[in-house]
Amino acid sequence: MGDRGRSATRADPGRAAAFSDAIIAIVITLLVLDLRPPETEPGGLLAGLLNEWPTYLAYAASYAYLAVIWMNHKAAFTRIREMDIGLQWTNLGILATLALVPWPTAVIAETARTGNLADERVAVALYAIIGALLCLSWLVFFSYLARHPDLTKEEVDDSYFARERPRALIGVVLYLAAGAAGLLIHPLMASVIFLLLPAFYAFTSHGFDQRPAVFRGGDRDDMSEAAARRRATEGPYSSCSPSEPARAKLERMTISETDLVHLRRAVELARDALDTGDGPFGSVLVDAAGVERFADRNREATTGDPTRHPEFEIARWAATNLRADERAAATVYTSGEHCPMCAAAHAWVGLGRIVYVASAEQIAGWRRDLGAPASPVSVLPIEAVAPNLPVEGPAEQLVAEVKALVERAIRPL
Ligand SMILES: [Zn+2]
Predict the structure, then answer these.
(1) Of 42, 133, 257, 302, which has the maximum CB count within 10 A?
(2) pTM for the whole structure
(3) How far is the CA of 95 from the centre of ligand 1 (A)?
(4) What is the distance between the alpha carbons of residues 266 and 264, in angstroms, rounded to a whole number?
């Protein structure tokens, strides 16, 4: 809690990622504007179209370059935990240079139409300079992250972004070399290198040498089923990484300030429960208008009924007190992720979104570490029980509080 002042200048990377996506989408679309019908005499269309091949080559190279940038940008952002002002600006630097890419592409297309070799040499040199600038902007971005490991996620190796820097540096050198080759030897030579460079970046994506094990492959094959499903429904930034903590941290970005208010209330209920000798868990049911409709805390010890979980009580209360559409629009905030019994009850009565502070896996891990007996019920994520529920958590901001409660429940002070 001591870093509250610092965190005021820090932001969740979600907006920067969304903004970057929008810019990349626009820029990649602008490229196609260079593809125009050739000006030909009647009967000369085929020759005219074939004549435009340098334009197609430039389009392919630029498209591939931007596509690879998007992939790498996405890969980088899955590792970023927080954005500070410096990181925002270095990211904007990448966007500023990549937004330039359609310009040299158009210049190449235009000079190809005039067919003047001297102009073509200058055009590929211009393209090379922009390409090198773009790599340079990545170098700045990677260097910034390498110097600020506190902005990356815990599970990301602190040397990861330092190891990414050579890729960017190689790009600067190779683009400049391609430009020199185009200027001094032949523009076609530069164009071929322009096409090959994105391939290099595509093949070396996700890391220059050893990648952190949790990210290896970085894609579907080693993602959990639930994470895969979530990504399919929530878009590329919601969950690209396979590890549970990484997935959880990414989801944190969808937890709003309003959510946190309700989650804090759930944590307070958990504290009340612990203070009276019950399990340290609390939950709140909030309707679509944001009004708390029902809240409860664990009552296992005080009632002698091990099914008296607050989430289960909420499901039962909602079944008798809310219409089906009200239940579907309601959100359950809870200090700890639903157990399989409560997840099933929640799904059976048709309740909506769940936001939790600590995951079932986290809680099970803390209990295990303190030698507490294992739960008689399997530890499963909600998605494994009720695959269609929108679920968000953990809420990193409050995890430490819940952990302290869970530990106090096992080892009273
Ligand atoms: Zn439960």
Answers:
(1) 133
(2) 0.51
(3) 46
(4) 5
